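Lab notebook page, bench 4
Experiment: in silico fold of construct C2
Operator: M.H.
Input chain length: 342 residues
Purpose: comparison with the prior construct
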Amino acid sequence: MKHKSLSSRIKGAVSPVITAALGVSLLAGVAGAADKIVKIDGSSTVYPITEAVAEDFQKAKKGDVRVTVGISGTGGGFKKFCRGETDISGASRPILKKEMDACKQAGIQYIELPVAYDALTVVVNPQNTWLKQITVDELKKIWEPAAQGQIKTWNQVNPAWPNTPIKLFGPGADSGTFDYFTEAVVGKAKSSRGDYTASEDDNVLVQGVSRDKGALGYFGYAYYAENSKKLKAVPIVEKAGKPAVLPSPETVKNGTYQPLARPVFIYVNASSVAKPEVKEFVEFYLNQAPKLTKAVKYVPLPDKAYALAKSNFAKKKTGTGFGGEPEVGVSVEELLQREGKH
């Protein structure tokens, strides 16, 4: 089936975060399904996939189940999840040690399921004529904490670029995209300059970059693909001697888009699996993910990875394959076969 655009999904009289907080379904016409509810919150990057799955699942269940999907960022989602407020948390990076500890303290066990690949995309305004490519080192020079209040113009990063003010847009500190980008580019998660326009809503970042000639921002690939007429993706040079590579489903699959290709996840509360509607929703998610990830401009995992994820879910394999630290460049198949850490 055809799925709505990102912008039309997220627009509305009530913001998605408030919608979820009020427990109001994002899909009209299923108001009668008050008793069977699947509650989801978390990453804005994972949101388009989960919302597409939720839409199809609710249609398949003919209104018997209501699915609510909020966007409070990966970190914000884990806070709710580890308090037992949600059944499923969307995450654009793995669960961190402090979140593992919070879940443990609350007695919450979880099943970690990668659902797709994303290409974290660096974007500029289409009127930017000077940036043909950017190296990871140049990105670090722009975004590292030492750049705060110091790196203000493009020519300070590279003398070949003009003396034009840089206006930066990026995810907020509750975002898993922020965590992953800072780990991959700066070398330490959450290590970033703070003088930029931050938002957990990627549409705010899209609008900001599209309105300023000197702007640069980063967010998940789907939000770029949806807005490619008003944004320009920047080819990334991983290190000296490597080619400049644009994000695309092909470059993510063949491993050349580095270091900004990453898996994205859902985490399922193990006790919620006792509720038939949650169990059925997750099984539906894993079965439909290859098709629906493509429909909303993400990259499906290899078939073997989905088979492993289904097996782990059926066995209720709890814990994380990461152990509380973000990893850049990990294979999803390897991750799914690791022993779960709690």
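Observations: The longest strand covers residues 110-119. The chain has two domains: 6-117+263-337, 121-253.
Next step: discuss at group meeting.
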